[in-house]
Amino acid sequence: TGFIVWSKQYTKNDVWSSLYPCGIDYDLGSSPNAFTNKKGAVVGAASKEGIYRVFRRDNGHPIWETPLIPAGSSPVTNSNPSGAYSNGVVYAISNATFSPTPQGPLTILALNGNASAFNLFVQEIVNNQFTVISALDADKGDILWTRNFQTATFASLTEANGVLYTGNFFGTFKALDTQNGDILFSTNLGAFNTISAPIT
Hints:
- The chain contains two helices and 13 strands.
- It has helices spanning 103-111, 115-127; strands at residues 33-37, 40-46, 51-56, 62-67, 74-75, 84-86, 89-97, 129-137, 143-150, 158-160, 163-167, 172-177, 183-188.
- The longest helix is centred in the middle third of the chain and has 13 residues, at 115-127.
């Protein structure tokens, strides 16, 4: 019927747009992952805040949440790629930075054609941002392994036959072993190529 059974808001009062660029910008840009664990049918998603949260699908009751970015770093708000699920493991992806540069206002200016802001935006991605890919136990949210990669990633994760695929902002397409996060191959497809989703 389209009736809302339940809903969850990750960050209250987080208004962020070209007309109001003062919000934290911790919205959910990722698609949810629907899977089954020991609690039954659940759904999970990561926000730009860098936290993956899982809820019961029937009533929205929270099951677990896991921070994805390392201590001492800050979430990146310009991208929130989708994760993947396979065989009892959630594969989550988040972007982080050690730079104090405010992400929201800079992103607004860059995406609205301000050349100086776009140059700063790209420099920030090159010099300070990094990608965190984590494997999480689907029952409890425990981190099984995590890998950090230089430069932000806008492309979502795709899992197939024990391999994770994604690509970063500057066109580096890579495949990771789902067992340990080791890189199976990495190749560059050209600047600004692999920035969207999904990979099939």
